[in-house]
Specification:
Strand order of the largest sheet: 4-3-5-12-6
CATH class of the largest domain: Alpha Beta
Number of domains: 3
Helix content: 40-55%
CATH superfamily of the largest domain: Periplasmic binding protein-like II
CATH topology of the largest domain: D-Maltodextrin-Binding Protein, domain 2
Distance between the termini: 62 Å
CATH architecture of the largest domain: 3-Layer(aba) Sandwich
Number of helices: 14
Number of strands: 12
Radius of gyration: 24 Å
Largest sheet: 5 strands, mixed
Strand content: 15-25%
């Protein structure tokens, strides 16, 4: 393995494997304080281990950047092979001697996602975890543009989203498909008269872009018809878009399951889009190094299970009654 070649001048008999566990946690947490908390050690013990690691690799490994630790290029290169090496050690120790029991897990998992998935999945996921693995804690992290790298480096345990870059060492498990719908305030004129595609394009739009990208499938569909919409507000959060639309004449296009959940909580109407778009497939992404980790497999399987249960509620019978209108003509 690359990791072993990097340490070709180090004898395994002289190596404390606990140092590698500390290094892995520092690469994930970017903080001696957080790493110490997760490992159940004191901060001074983790700082001492970092000093020994720096001597071992003849590299500073981490540099102070504001309140966080920034890994050096050497440390970044060690992340993936380190995960692979420790996962192999764990399999050797537990493959035939230990029966996995989720009730005995004491671990904190980091999930990267959007507020959309938080609102829909967490109410389904948390009861499952509390019942079967009460020692599991969750931390959510916003799905930023660097999420693919963070997944590969195991800074997060799973990421929930619609598109992931095809990086080596990143696997994805589908959860479900969602169509896009139009959302407007309940008293908006479009709620009563419907929309042609030209009238839709002429509205003032909110665009939800969690990863900062401009445009999307709707803009591509409109462009094929020789049309363009004006996006007057671009935000990273689905919930803020819904709250803004509820009190303005702006409109937003959202995944149907989330849109209907918001329409039950806010004065919103859910309408079919007057332009054909393909919708999105949501997936759970994770590092290939975690594939055979029983605790990790338990978590991601429950995330997928919670996601499927949440998506199965849309469109519910109750949701169909919240402002649903027949699909208007595409052209006009």
């Amino acid at each position: 393995m690359l990791f072993m070649r990097d340490m070709s001048d180090v004898h395994l008999a002289d190596l404390d494997l606990n140092l590698l566990v500390v290094l892995r946690e520092l690469l994930r947490a970017r903080s001696t304080t957080v790493a110490a908390q997760r490992l159940g050690r004191t901060q001074s013990a983790v700082s001492h281990a970092l000093g020994r690691l720096r001597e071992l690799f003849a590299d500073p490994l981490f540099l102070r950047s504001g309140g966080a630790l920034r890994p050096t290029a050497r440390a970044e290169a060690l992340a993936a092979p380190l995960d692979e090496a420790l996962a192999s050690v764990d399999r050797v120790l537990h493959r035939s001697t230990t029966r996995f029991d989720p009730a005995r897990i004491e671990r904190t998992f980091v999930i990267a996602t959007t507020d959309y998935a938080e609102i829909l999945l967490l109410p389904e996921l948390m009861p499952l975890l509390r019942a079967e693995a009460p020692g599991v804690d969750l931390v959510t992290r916003f799905l930023a543009d660097d999420i693919d790298r963070a997944v590969a480096a195991r800074e997060v345990d799973v990421a929930i989203g619609t598109s992931f870059r095809p990086l080596a060492g990143v696997l994805a498990q589908p959860v479900g498909h969602q169509d896009m719908v139009l959302v407007a305030r309940r008293a908006h004129p479009v709620a009563k008269r419907g929309l042609t595609v030209k009238a839709y394009a002429a509205l003032d739009h909110v665009l939800v872009a969690p990863r900062g990208f401009q445009g999307g499938v709707i803009d591509v569909a409109l462009e094929k018809l020789g049309l363009a919409r004006r996006v007057v507000l671009r935000v990273p959060h689905f919930s803020s878009a819904a709250f803004t639309v509820a009190s303005t004449d702006l409109v937003v296009s959202l995944p149907e399951c989330f849109a209907r959940a918001m329409a039950e909580a806010l004065p919103l109407v859910v309408l079919p889009l007057p332009v054909e778009v393909s919708g999105f497939t949501f997936s759970v992404a994770f590092s290939a190094a975690a594939k055979d980790d029983p605790a990790h497999a338990f978590l991601r399987n429950h995330v997928v299970r919670a996601g499927k249960r949440a998506f199965a509620r849309s469109p519910s019978r109750r949701a169909r009654q919240v402002g649903a209108l027949p699909r208007p003509p595409v052209h006009g």
